[in-house]
Amino acid sequence: MSDKRMTADDVVARLRSGMTIGIGGWGSRRKPMALIRAILRSDLRDLTIVSYGGADVGLLCAAGRVKKVVFGFVSLDSIPLDPHFRAARQRGEVEVAEYDEGMLMWGLYAAGIRMPFLPTRAGLGSDVMTVNPGLKTVADPYGDEVFAAMPALKLDAALVHMNRADMHGNSQFLGPDLYFDDLMCMAAEDSYVSCEQIVPTEELTADAHPSTLRISRLLVSGVVEAPRGAHFTSCAPDYGRDEAFQRAYVNAAKDPAAWDEFSTVYLTGTEDDYQRAVARFDTQEAMA
Fold first, then answer.
1. Residue by residue, what is the 3-state secondary structure of 179-219?
2. What number is the average pLDDT over the span 77-104?
3. 122 φ/ψ angles, rounded to the nearest 5 degrees
4. Which residues contact 217 (CB under 8 A, 6 or more apart)?
5. What pLDDT is attached to residue 140?
């Protein structure tokens, strides 16, 4: 078995402008933010992003790296809408394909099992069919029902963040929900996993049920050890969402000068620079 360990910058070096990239996690939960920050340090652009979105989508939109977003929602959980994504949509800067959450899952699954589409009742009778005029329906060949035909969402690459992985890419979640990170990896030509900790293979199931080991090394092209790599989203049980920092992110988005300062402090340096700046932020919050 091969050693697939690499750095976040190594991952980004394998990506190309114009790619369709799936980003795992859910809203403001277990997002691969260290990998997103590495993209922000690169010159990648014209990306199509597929995501149950949160600040991952917002940051990429704010940096002008996004051509199109395919999404079920873009939310920060405790704050309903990501401000940068909302602003990008209001300015008409990004193309969008907004699906029912179940349709998005079904599209990833279709790509994962190499099907061109899968039938679903999700979306029928709603404006999803109206705002996505390319969606078609399909008749039940055994009955009279008509279904939405959700097309496969094929990804050039998937980026996900997990709690633990081994150096071969076997990856594990320890929180309450896998979200659809396994489907993101199944739907992608290449999948890259960042994780809180890379451990020996035998440790993955020494203190956790084998069912938590849901992403196989067979799906993974590279694995990156990135402690606190989901910050400021949550990565249960390792840490919760940083609500104070998330509010600072949203407040900074309200004013161009404040956003320039936020970007300078948190987004222009290395990942180590980011984590040190967050530590200073935490200290200031504790003293306030």
1. CCHHHHHHCEEEEEEEEEEECCHHHHCCCCCHHHCCECHHH
2. 96
3. -60, 135
4. 1, 4, 166, 168, 169, 170
5. 97
